[in-house]
Specification:
single chain; 203 residues; alpha/beta; Rossmann fold; 7-stranded mixed sheet; 6 helices; 24% strand
């Protein structure tokens, strides 16, 4: 996407999600993000919609965001922690350096999901946890076919978003032990309603 497109997407992001947030997505964010403990890394933090949900147990907060227009809005919202402009598949941190990694609506968009999961596992401590909330490929074959058909158009509209990624399977392939729940995002287009959330631990 062009620099102008990135700026427009960042400017519209909160408004695009507002209906879904009010209809229940914010509650799901809170349930996941409030579990963060210790030194915390959030990947693809966007405009900072998760910030209000971090509790005092998140003692050291680092937020990565690869897009400068998003990072600028994120910094404006920030009341603690630091912002690092970096992509999820090239994290500039040492091995075993975080107790918690948080990913919400990010693993659908990273260019190389496999590499991003390798990086998350690398920077997590052996007893660390990945807290995730992601929309995923539908188990309904009809919906999944539409996710595949509409992929090119949705990637353009959603700034690189892939609505048809089987992220649960990708987590397992990356060596994580996964506990998850499935749900449906309210007031969202049908191809991005199927969602999962939960906890993944390095295997």
């Amino acid at each position: 996407m062009s620099k102008l497109g990135a700026r427009v997407f960042a400017a519209m992001y909160d408004r695009m999600l507002a209906g879904t947030e009010e209809a229940g997505l914010r509650d799901h964010r809170r349930a996941i993000v409030s579990q963060a403990r210790g030194r915390v890394l959030e990947i693809g933090a966007g405009t900072g919609l998760n910030l209000e949900h971090y509790g005092p147990e998140a003692t050291d907060l680092v937020l990565t965001e690869p897009e400068e227009p998003m990072a600028r809005r994120l910094r404006a919202r920030l009341t603690r922690g630091e912002v690092v402009e970096a992509p999820a598949d090239r994290l500039p941190f040492a091995d075993d350096s975080f107790d918690t990694v948080v990913s919400t609506l990010v693993l659908c968009t990273v260019p190389d999901q496999e590499r991003a999961l390798e990086e998350i596992r690398r920077v997590l401590k052996p007893d660390g946890r990945l807290l995730f909330l992601e929309h995923v490929r539908s188990h309904d074959a009809k919906v999944a076919r539409w996710q595949d058909r509409l992929l090119p158009a949705w990637r353009f509209v959603g700034h690189g978003c892939h609505p048809n990624r089987d992220t649960a399977a990708a987590l397992a392939r990356a060596g994580f032990a996964v506990e998850l729940e499935s749900w449906r995002m309210p007031k969202a287009p049908a191809i991005v309603r199927p969602a999962i959330e939960g906890v993944a631990r390095p295997g």
